Give the backbone structure.
Amino acid sequence: MAKPKFQSPTGMHDILPQNQAYYEKIQNTAKEVVEFYDFGKIDTPVLEDYNLFIRSIGEGTDIVEKEMFTLKTKGKDFLALRPEGTAPIMRSYIENGFVSLPQPVRLWYFGPFFRYEKPQAGRFRQFNQFGIEIIGEDDAIIDAQTILIMYKFLQELGLKDLVVKVNSIGDDKCRPIYRKELLKYLRDKKTSLCADCQKRIKTNPLRVFDCKNEKCGQVLMGAPQSIDYLCEECKKHLKNVLEYLDELKIPYSLESKLVRGLDYYTRTVFEIESTREQDSPIALAGGGRYDNLSKALGGGEISSCGAAAGIERIIAEMKEVKSKLILHSIPDVFFAQIGPLAKKRSLPILEELRNAKIKVGESFGKDGLKAQLGKASRLGVKAVLILGQKEAINEMILIRNMKTSKQVEVKQEDIVIELKKILKEK
Ligand code: HAM
């Protein structure tokens, strides 16, 4: 087949009708979980000031250096398509004075995000996230609850074999000491690192842990680990988070090299993976604590924690494990019509049935009765309405009870009453 002249942009995809049910199910599941925990929904614009992301995600990160879609408006504003949701939500929290509300403020979101990545399995340039942010609380119970919510959400979608990878990257007090030790180590091994990581030594040394290069991976095996440099408060915080996870019986592993690709994190960072693909596990969700983000964006000292899950990766996993999905609800009745007059009458009759809340299937494009009845039997409806030329003239209609195969002719004005009788039958 010849390549069509126009295709969707690289790494961006249509969500086709056959996949909509996954999005619906995921959004409904997310909604159920967050409503229980009293989150309010928030939608922020897809475009934000470019500098919002520089200040939050940080220079020297892959997202800011390589993955932003940016544009200059006619009014000379420099904007970026949002690559993630935490910074825009913190911007909104500060801008809307949410600090005066009872804290913590719990917000959730669902929508598209954009990263100019090399498209590959599970990595797209436009993807959707479900995210939660709990803003204004520093207790470790919030970190555990964030992990719990994401974990339960994935479980409720039928995903099994999940593991939570947790680490602590310290705070303003202890991270500089760790950074210094890491720098010392990296400088010694500089010549064995890739060009990107050599640059990272100067700009943002912790980001070397995001490098996918195998040689760098080997060098980093012996690198100092953040967990060994935590101050007393950070140690206690991590211990508390892990104790809550034990209490909740959530399986986790401590991952000393997990730093996450965004600079705003402090203390707890985590990712949830499926353990099914042992060789190349892919993160279904990730998050952590971000106690300094508000200040970096011009707000006050506000401790917060949150996480986001990647919808397309979840869908791929749901398909892999054949997770149950309730597809479109099956219609109760099928409407078949033959001839031009019947076709003309069919739209108002369909409207009448819709008003009576009877779900009706039809295939107006297929005029042959055989093709229409074929579709009706594939759908497994309880009754078929048949409107031919003769019935249309006489203002009558045929109703076939699919269970008993009995067919009766009724007045068009009695369709709803007669159908309801059949639909009530067991
Ligand atoms: P993140 O780890 O960058 O965190 O993204 C969260 C999830 O989004 C990932 O675990 C993954 O499932 C999905 N994801 C990320 N990039 C892509 C992509 N290119 N294609 C498909 N899926 C992708 C954040 O975005 C943070 N804002 C999470 C957070 C909220 N931290 C605190 N609060």
